[in-house]
Design goal:
The complex is a heterodimer of chains A (85) and B (145). With 85 residues, chain A is an alpha+beta fold. Helix content of chain A is 25%, strand content 25%. Chain B is globular, with a radius of gyration of 15 Å. The longest helix of chain B is centred in the C-terminal third of the chain and has 18 residues, at 96-113. In chain B, 34% of the residues lie in helices and 34% in strands.
Chain lengths: 85, 145
């Protein structure tokens, strides 16, 4: 399963790219599992994902909790809590 | 009538207000870049696609809940200076109570439910704005009532 992963704000800055392709293993069932797997990609990924309590996510542009299954997702976004307005 | 806009262009409050004036009451809120703690530039990043969907959902919810005649959400993105407008929301209804409440709802929900991130520059140092618990509390007061 291949998906597009998007990053925003300081998550994007620490990783160094705004988006990338990912083909996580079957064992990665949830967004939290995906983050564990992505964290091994580089020091930047590890730094961005060091504190899971500061991460939020969306699947196919809908906000979801980190324990949400990723099966069937085309686009996953990982970012800090929002601060607009 | 619902109007959603996300743009790097300055917000024209007079034009937005005029577009809302289709009923007996209009309430609006404008957010500006504050410079009180040394900020000299603000940058707004967003999640294209998801932002438009989130703003549309917030406006539609307000329109249904208060039977609005018009609802507008306009949000700047990109770089802004102190004193510039970041966000404008407005609600038009037949009576002031609905317009005022819907306006408060629009800006409270925008703070927690729309994918925008603020980056502040003070001198040469840029930092990402941390979320505030008070924003969650302000948004939560609309739940279940």
């Amino acid at each position: 399963m291949t998906m597009r992963v998007l990053y925003f704000a300081w998550v994007r800055e620490r990783i160094g790219v705004g988006e990338e392709e990912a083909s996580p293993p079957e064992s990665a069932k949830t967004i939290a599992d995906l983050i564990d797997w992505l964290a091994t990609r580089s020091d930047g990924h590890a730094a961005a994902f060091a504190d899971r309590t500061r991460l939020r996510a969306a699947i196919d542009q809908d906000f979801v909790l980190l324990d949400t299954p990723i099966a069937g997702a085309r686009e996953i976004a990982i970012f800090p809590p929002v601060t607009g307005g | 009538m619902i109007r959603i806009a996300i743009s790097e262009a300055p917000i024209d409050v007079a034009a937005e207000l005029h577009a809302l004036e289709r009923s007996g009451s209009v309430a609006t809120f404008t957010g500006l870049v504050r410079g009180d703690d040394g900020v000299n530039e603000l940058r707004l990043e967003h999640y294209p696609g998801a932002t438009e969907a989130a703003l549309t959902r917030i406006a539609e919810e307000a329109a249904a809940r208060w039977s609005l005649v018009a609802a507008t959400i306009v949000h700047r993105v990109g770089a802004m200076r102190v004193g510039e407008r970041i966000v404008f929301v407005g609600a038009g209804a037949d009576h002031r109570g609905a317009a005022l409440e819907a306006c408060a709802y629009l800006i409270d929900r925008l703070k927690t439910d729309a994918p925008f991130w603020k980056n502040e520059t003070r001198g040469d140092v840029a930092t990402w704005v941390e979320p505030r618990d008070s924003d969650d509390a302000a948004a939560a007061r609309w739940d279940g009532s």
